[in-house]
């Protein structure tokens, strides 16, 4: 029978709107050329059977057998089971299993969506071997499939967080991810739409702090605080609406709110406006590098001081990169550790940054925009 191929999906960075999608707000994210790869070899006979998953990049991790037809996952992060179940719910069938070898160049547990990249690559693999009367319609509609990645990775496990990761890793490119549904479907609150941006953003340096993080724990704490603060704003100001509230006038209008909740809402409004400014700039293609850097710095301030997801090490690295000539930068992803990135258009600044990071033994990568989940053969 048998075929062999590789399914690939990219990691991602978030430019603007970080920690906003779980509030139903838009996000600007970019898939990057650090990728998750799954090398698949079909079983020698065409009989439905389990998959054998191999993870040689994880020290001490033995191969595991995955039976996608079992009613329960093997663990609370068995995303391969969740993705398969999302497709089974859609009516897909899988006539054979096989061996799948998982490899990644994405920093692990570092805010670059390595788990969502794995889920996106696994989804693309299963679509390649699955059978369904409308299979071609799924393959031609990446936004539809990205939502299924979200269902398989988050809804099946009641996970925290929004949809940015799954859409970025499956669809790829530079994306504006917004609430309301993707083109051609009714607007619904549980789906996000995607606008593809042609702008080529260069001179991004991704930096791995080396601090592992608790993605779901950090997301749950940050999202709970944000939602509670927004609820407090609605209680104090019955007409309050996060997408439309005036950031400049909010502090005076919210005088009866607790100070901490007021600051959280205020900075989420500023974060919202940074995303709005960012999408306007990227749509126009008229980029002011200094202003972009300042916007990234302001986003980092919000995420560090108010959302509370940065760490002293990441704050120090961000400041050191700016001192070395970067125009700006921010923590990337859910936080509590992981990665940050800086924007450094000046080649000399990038050399200085590389020297500083190398002296500290900090891994770093020049990254650029990447396409989404795909199949490689040969």
Verbal overview:
By secondary structure, the protein is an alpha+beta fold. The chain contains eleven helices and twelve strands. The chain has helices at residues 79-89, 114-129, 135-139, 142-153, 164-171, 215-236, 250-253, 259-284, 289-306, 312-323, 347-359; strands at 4-16, 27-42, 51-54, 64-66, 98-104, 174-179, 192-197, 204-208, 328-332, 339-343, 363-367, 374-376. Strands 1, 2, 3, 4, 5, 6, 7 and 12 form an eight-stranded mixed sheet that branches. It has a four-stranded antiparallel sheet with strand order 9-10-8-11. Strand 9 and strand 10 form a beta hairpin. Helix 1 packs across helix 2 (114-129), helix 4 (142-153) crosses helix 5 (164-171) and helix 6 (215-236) packs across helix 8. The longest helix is centred in the C-terminal third of the chain and has 26 residues, at 259-284. The model has no long low-confidence stretch (mean pLDDT 92).
């Amino acid at each position: 029978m048998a075929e062999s191929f590789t399914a690939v999906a990219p990691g991602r960075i978030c430019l603007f709107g970080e920690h906003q999608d779980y509030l139903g707000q838009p996000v600007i994210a970019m898939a990057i050329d650090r990728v998750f790869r799954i090398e698949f070899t079909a079983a020698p006979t065409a009989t439905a059977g389990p998959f054998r998953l191999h993870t040689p990049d994880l020290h001490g991790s033995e191969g595991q057998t995955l039976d996608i037809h079992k009613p329960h996952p093997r663990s609370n992060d068995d995303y391969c089971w969740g993705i398969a179940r999302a497709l089974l719910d859609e009516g897909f069938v899988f006539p054979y299993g096989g061996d799948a070898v998982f490899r990644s160049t994405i920093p692990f547990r570092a805010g670059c969506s390595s788990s969502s990249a794995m889920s996106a690559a696994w989804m693309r693999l299963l679509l390649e071997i699955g059978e369904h009367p409308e299979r071609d319609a799924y393959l031609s509609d990446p936004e539809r499939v990205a939502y299924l990645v979200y269902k398989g990775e988050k809804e099946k496990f009641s996970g925290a967080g929004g949809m940015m990761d799954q859409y970025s890793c499956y669809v790829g490119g530079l994306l504006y991810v917004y609430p309301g549904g993707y083109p051609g479907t009714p607007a619904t609150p549980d789906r996000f739409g995607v606008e593809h941006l042609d702008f080529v953003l260069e001179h991004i340096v991704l930096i791995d702090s080396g601090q592992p993080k608790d993605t779901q724990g950090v997301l749950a704490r940050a999202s709970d605080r944000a939602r509670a603060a927004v609820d407090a704003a609605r209680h104090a100001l019955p007409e309050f609406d996060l997408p439309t509230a005036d950031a400049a006038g909010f502090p005076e209008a919210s005088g009866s709110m607790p100070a901490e909740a007021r600051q959280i809402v205020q900075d989420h409004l500023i974060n919202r406006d940074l995303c709005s400014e960012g999408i306007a700039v990227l749509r126009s293609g008229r980029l002011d590098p200094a202003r972009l850097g300042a916007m990234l710095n302001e986003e980092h301030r919000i995420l560090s001081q108010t959302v509370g997801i940065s760490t002293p090490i990441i704050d120090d690295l961000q400041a050191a990169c700016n001192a070395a000539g970067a125009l700006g930068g921010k923590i990337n992803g859910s936080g509590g550790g992981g990665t940050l990135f800086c924007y450094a258009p000046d080649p000399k600044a990038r050399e200085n940054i590389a020297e500083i990071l190398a002296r500290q033994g900090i891994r770093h990568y020049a990254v650029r925009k990447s396409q989404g989940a795909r199949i490689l053969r040969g």
